[in-house]
Amino acid sequence: MIDLKAVIFDLDGTLIDSMGIWVKVDVKYLSRRNIPVTPDLFKDVPAGNSFHELAHYVKDKFDLPDTIEEICHEWTEMVRDHYENDIKLKVGVLELITYLKEHEIEMAIGTSNSELLTESVLRSNKIRDFFRYVISGDQDLRGKPFPDIFLKAAAALKIKPENCLVLEDTLAGAKAAVAAGMKVICVQDEDSKKEWQEIEKIAIFSAKEIIDIGNFIKIIMRCGK
Question: What pTM was estimated for this model as a whole?
């Protein structure tokens, strides 16, 4: 199925339980400016969902005077303490990445989040050393569903895209992986439930729990021997 040499992990909603925090950030950030928050806040995002691209989107949509750097900084400060202290790994993550490391599979992070927050939460959960590279959404890249983040991760690892497996939780992330020429498996998160039927059409495997994802990866690795 795949000659597996690397796994590229999304972060929020995949490795960590954090998506709910960002919903609160949207509400708090816009409420500070007396702007009502609607359920379809991001429905007309043109393309890409990186940290910087969403800041551009919010700035333009609401004609804000804030610079992109100011928006990103405010968002970061609103969640920084949570990423440094509160946010935990999803059940089964440590076991999965330990297994991959023991079997000499390279690992990287490909996330729409910022580098600062990504590094903070990986270090607070004592798993930073498992990942050779962190490719983040505040770098000069197009966000998911464009393939840039995953392609940069593969290039950094010096591994061909067809030998990379992506672990994601969102439709945009799954589309980005496929566009990069990679296979994708998906774990369900609360925020991705509404996209799940579409995700299942793209992913080679999908499950509600990381432990099931881990078992699937073990099967892939055994078949590849």
Answer: 0.90
Residues 67 and 121 in one domain: no
Instruction: Please list, residue by residue across 192-211, b when 16 or more beta carbons sit within 10 angstroms of its beta carbon and e when fewer do.
Output: beebbeebeebbebbbeebb
How far is residue 174 CA from its own chain's centroid? 10
What are the pLDDT digits (tens) for 9-42? 999 999 998 877 887 888 899 999 999 888 777 7
Q: Express each pLDDT in 52-110 by its tens digit.
A: 888 888 999 899 999 999 999 999 999 998 999 999 999 999 999 999 999 999 999 99
Domain boundary among 85, 118, 137: 85
187 DSSP β-pair partners? 207
Whether 70 and 114 share a structural domain: no
Does residue 1 lie within any of the structural domains? no
Q: Are residues 106 and 80 in the same domain?
A: no
Domain that holds residue 14: 6-18+88-223
Which of 70, 85, 100 is the C-terminal boundary of a domain?
A: 85
Token pair for 72: 């990103």
Alpha-carbon gap, residue 145 to 162, rounded angstroms: 18
